[in-house]
Amino acid sequence: MQELFRQNRKMGRPPMRWLVRKNGLPFASFLFCPDKTHKTAVARNRSKRILRELVRNHLSSIPVGYDCALLVQKEFAKLSKEDREVLFLSVLKQFP
To answer: Which key words tag this protein in UniProt (predicted)?
Structure first.
């Protein structure tokens, strides 16, 4: 996973960014990273749950063979469900 942070392609804009790197495997792997603006574990875990649900719902749209790190700020969890999904899909359209 350290290679993902060293050699990657950045997509998206705050409050959600993706770091993507080819892994050459027949599946995609995900890392969910709430940033330091999340002050409590409750806030970090909520953001991770939201991200996991978005990935689960749109897994068929995500290309295989990539390592993906999804970085979110605390404002991401404060968005409405529809706004989060629109943001997620807009970043997904930028996928290589």
So the answer is: Endonuclease, Hydrolase, Nuclease, RNA-binding, tRNA processing
User: What pTM was computed for the model?
Assistant: 0.89
Pairing assessment for the beta strands 66-72 and 29-34 based on DSSP bridges? parallel
Q: What is the pLDDT of residues 3-20, one digit of tens each?
A: 888 888 999 999 999 999
CATH topology of domain 1-93: Ribosomal Protein S5; domain 2 (3.30.230)
Which residues neighbour 7 within 8 Å (Cβ) at sequence distance 6 or greater?
Answer: 21
C-alpha triplet 38, 81, 92: angle, nearest 5°: 85
Which candidate, 69, 67, 62, places its Cα nearest to that of 94? 62
pLDDT in tens, 23-54: 999 999 999 999 999 999 999 999 999 999 99
Q: DSSP string covering 5-60, please? A: HHS-EEEEETTEEEEEEE--SSS-EEEEEE-TT--SHHHHHHHHHHHHHHHHHTGG
